[in-house]
Amino acid sequence: MQETRRRFIKGAAMSAAALALPMAGRAWAADVQTVRYGGSAWLGHYPAWLAIQAGYFKNEGLDVGWESFGTTSARVSALLSGNIDMAVTAAPAALAVMSRGSRHFAIIGVPENFGRVEGLIVRDGVQSLQDLKGKKIGVTFASSAHLLVLNLLDEAGLKAGKDVTVLNVPAPEMPAAFQAGQIDAAAAWTPQFNAIRSMPGARLLADDTQFSLYKEYGVTPGPDVLVARRAFLEKHPEAVKRFLKAYFRANEQLRAQPDSTVAALVELTKLAPADQLEMVKGADWYGASEQGQLLAPGSKYIDGLQKLAEMMVRYGQIDKAPAVRDWVDPAYL
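The structure assignment produced for this chain is given below.
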């Protein structure tokens, strides 16, 4: 979940995957063993990192390589150009690419719901959204937090730029801006979300569970989705199935045994163990058994992503809403 961009590099180059090596007791000779994954320290990438560190992918005959990206836009560009095979991305970034007609990738899974670690934080004197009239809200533009702010103001009958000043503040600078009084409210995601909440006089006014689509569809402003290149899916279907088996094994561990994941994850995030555990517990991790319901034709979740695309059009984030179901492929679960 990081910033959504309206411009992404459209690439058509598809690289060849490495040949699979045989495993004892198994015959994967006809399939690929190497998978290139694009990640970052954001919590949406915890399952892939954990599955690498715990050897879950290796147990499935896969050599999963990790490539770090500083932004969602860079990660999506790498996926479209064929430099990586799979990644987790914030849905708004995927929707922006879909709206431009790119068919180079498909949604194959939903890792988690992080609705409780992103939200709008205010000072003690602000008791409602109406109290923000005439004040300044800091938010990173073209992000899930930006969509949350626009939606909250809309629901409260307030207009950005007229009733409330909405300022573009880069996420890393948000805590300092709030602490210095440059903004009256801050919309942020973890870890900035946690840092601002811990400041004296700060209080949470709304998190992603107050987003209008969450109430009906269970969709946050920037839900994470697991995506893969279509060329990779078509060429290596069995490798994809094994990837998902190991991936959701890691998700089950994050959900059922969060303490056991901390040691591996702090190598990625550099957080203190206590803060790392808080972040793991702050998300709802979806297992393999829930994927069919989330991605099946007619699912409420995909309907929610469609509504999210339409909302992005309404708020000027993208030009047109794609038919989201055309990019969903649950065949590998």
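Interim note for the steering committee: The longest strand covers residues 34-39. The CA atoms of residues 140 and 291 lie 31 Å apart.
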